[in-house]
């Protein structure tokens, strides 16, 4: 049965919503500059190190460029994308919020303000070629920057002569931006919308094709493991404050938000579940804040380090708190991954395992639709796949969990259907 | 408009699934395409939906068209009968008339061809 809840909340203008979203990159910018100055980091050198890094999985910018430069990079990427939303006068819906937070999150490991640009250029050329407005595809392009590492890898991986490397990086990035729109739409049918990071699945396929082609030319892209192993308390405190800010803003928009919060838990979360439309912006912002606090607390309780990839995982969950994820449909998947980790003997404190736990919530709609037992099973299956598929695309697809999640959903859904009786 | 006929077909597919599964066993569709717009007329006979539900459906179908959602997700419409894609249909429609007439639910959905 289709339903949306009737809710009453304060009318919020588009600019007000953009401002709430802008708080994250603005705070990151101030924090980055302040941290850099306080700890005598040379921010320009840090940024250059980030720009010149091949950025394949897992390249933690906190390690490569330092804390200050990394936060400035994330702020620049975030503000650039929010500017685009303003420029195209986009309605702030749940998907758009998810896209902004995902892009900002992955600016802590993989995306920088330079390597994403060729993909936008490719998207622009596609829009011109098809005679459609750029605003129609901008969201897909924002998500498709998952493949930004291929631009950095081609440019700075040492495969081409100086000068020609820039040309090749921009060319391949532009090509990816051009082809990603029809591909991403088509790939949905494989998992029927049960994988929230659909672009991750698409980028996994594209990355696999590109990496295979490059390997024919003796260019062997392999995943790396460059990670910051320091726990930065200031970052953790800032994240908690920002998530609390979201809850407070949600409450200000809808002062019955806490009472009505249970309404959001009724939704399965399958694409398209836009909470801004179904339960309003107030409860949506509250859900985002709650998801942020829960995921950060989970990381800390597992003994994990809140480094670049982990921040990406947390911010992505926060973003998709506006588009399908809530505690009820995420919990069984997380339990499944933890159970799988226990059975297979994973180190719960390792960043690789922690981000698998966080990003596994891409398949939260499976738990939301088919219940906690299937959700736990899907979580176990996700863990086994995500630890094996990265090598196929050589780490150039940042949304590796989206790739694995697509495979899990595409594999499980028909099987679940086979066991169902009745209509 | 790229894949316009296919998009309309998928919308009809989704709405057919929705109404037959949730409400009725008798349904009429009429599709009219002009240079400026496409109109999909639907009659869901002997509806069981109550007035509150119909009002809510009308409100959602008359929310702002979201072309970025359409461009990305249109291939999901009609894809499964496990869940509905009414949010997607709402994103693909510019305006709608939704009313109850003689016990039937009558809808007229309009898609404009200006970007």
Describe this structure in words.
The complex is a heterodimer of chains A (423) and B (115). Chain A is mainly α. Chain A folds into 2 domains: 14-216, no CATH class; 233-417, no CATH class. Chain A has helices at 14-38, 43-52, 61-87, 94-105, 117-130, 138-144, 148-156, 164-191, 198-216, 233-253, 257-260, 275-278, 280-301, 308-320, 327-344, 351-359, 364-370, 372-393, 400-419. In chain A, α2 crosses α3 (61-87), α3 packs antiparallel against α4 and α15 runs antiparallel to α16 (351-359). The longest helix of chain A is centred in the middle third of the chain and has 28 residues, at 164-191. Chain A is globular and about 60 Å long. Chain A starts with 13 loop residues before the first helix and ends with a helix. In chain A, 59% of the residues are buried. Chain B has a single domain (4-112), classed as Heat Shock Protein 90, CATH 3.30.565. Chain B has a 4-stranded antiparallel sheet, with helices on one face. The A-B interface holds A 1-4, 6, 90-91, 93, 95-96, 130, 132-133, 135-140, 181, 184-186, 188-189, 192-193, 268, 270-274, 277-278, 369, 417, 423 and B 2, 18, 21-22, 53, 56-57, 60, 63-64, 66-76, 79-88, 90-91, 115.
**Can you tell me the number of structural domains of chain A?**
2
> Overall pLDDT of chain B, averaged?
93
- Using the alpha-carbon principal axes, give the shape of chain A: globular
What portion of the residues of chain B fall into strands of 2 or more residues? 25-35%
Determine the fraction of residues in helical runs of chain A and give it as a percent range.
Answer: 55-70%
Q: How many β-strand stretches of chain B?
A: 4
| Main sheet overview of chain A | none
CATH class of chain B: Alpha Beta
> Are there runs of chain B of 5+ residues with pLDDT below 50, and where?
none
Strand content of chain A: under 5%
Q: Major beta sheet of chain B, specifics?
A: 4 strands, antiparallel
Helix content, binned percent of chain B = 25-40%
Shape of chain B: globular
Number of helix segments of chain A? 19
């Amino acid at each position: 049965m289709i339903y949306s809840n009737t809710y009453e909340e304060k009318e919020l203008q588009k600019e007000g919503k953009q401002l709430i979203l802008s708080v994250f990159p603005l705070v990151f910018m101030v924090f980055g500059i302040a941290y850099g100055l306080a700890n005598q980091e040379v921010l320009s050198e840090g940024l250059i190190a980030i720009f010149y890094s091949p950025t394949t999985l897992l390249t933690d910018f906190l390690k490569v460029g330092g804390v200050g430069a990394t936060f400035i990079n994330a702020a620049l990427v975030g503000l650039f994308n929010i500017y685009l939303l303003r420029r195209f006068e986009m309605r702030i819906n749940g998907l758009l919020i998810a896209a902004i937070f995902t892009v900002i999150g992955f600016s802590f490991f993989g995306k920088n303000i330079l390597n994403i640009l060729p993909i936008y250029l490719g998207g622009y050329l596609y829009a011109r070629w098809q005679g459609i407005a750029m605003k129609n595809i901008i969201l897909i392009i924002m998500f498709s920057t998952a493949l930004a590492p291929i631009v950095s890898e081609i440019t700075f991986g040492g495969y081409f002569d100086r000068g020609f490397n820039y040309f090749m990086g921009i060319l391949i990035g532009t090509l990816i931006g051009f082809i990603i729109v029809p591909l991403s739409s088509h790939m949905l049918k494989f998992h029927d919308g049960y994988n929230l990071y659909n672009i991750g699945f698409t980028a996994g396929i594209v990355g696999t094709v590109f990496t295979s082609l490059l390997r024919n030319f003796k260019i062997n892209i392999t995943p790396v493991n460059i990670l910051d192993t320091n726990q930065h308390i200031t970052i953790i405190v800032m994240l908690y404050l920002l998530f609390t800010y979201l809850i407070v803003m949600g409450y200000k928009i809808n002062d019955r938000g806490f009472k009505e919060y249970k309404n959001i838990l009724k939704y399965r979360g399958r694409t398209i579940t836009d909470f801004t439309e179904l339960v309003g912006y107030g409860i949506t912002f509250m859900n985002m804040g709650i998801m942020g606090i829960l995921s950060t607390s989970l990381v800390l309780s597992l003994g994990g380090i809140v480094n670049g990839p982990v921040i990406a995982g947390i911010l992505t969950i926060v973003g998709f708190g506006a588009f399908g994820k809530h505690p009820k449909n995420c919990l069984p998947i997380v339990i499944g991954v933890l159970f799988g980790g226990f059975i297979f003997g994973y180190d719960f404190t390792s960043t690789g395992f922690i981000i698998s736990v966080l990003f596994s919530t891409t398949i939260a709609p499976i738990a939301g639709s088919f219940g906690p037992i299937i959700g736990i099973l899907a979580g176990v299956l996700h863990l086994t796949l995500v630890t094996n598929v990265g090598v196929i695309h050589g780490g150039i697809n940042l949304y590796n969990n989206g790739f694995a999640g697509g495979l899990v959903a595409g594999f499980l859904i028909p099987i679940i259907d086979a066991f169902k009786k009745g209509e | 408009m790229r894949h316009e006929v296919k998009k309309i077909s998928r919308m009809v597919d989704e709405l057919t699934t929705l109404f037959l599964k949730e409400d009725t066993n008798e349904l009429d569709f009429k599709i009219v395409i002009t240079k400026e717009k496409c109109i999909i007329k639907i009659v869901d006979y002997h509806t069981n939906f109550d007035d509150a539900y119909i009002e809510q459906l009308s409100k959602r179908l008359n929310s702002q068209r979201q072309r970025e959602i359409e461009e990305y997700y249109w291939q999901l419409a009609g894809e499964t009968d496990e869940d509905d894609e009414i949010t997607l249909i709402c994103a693909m429609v510019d305006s709608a008339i939704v009313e109850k007439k003689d016990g039937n639910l009558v809808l007229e959905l309009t898609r404009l061809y200006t970007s």
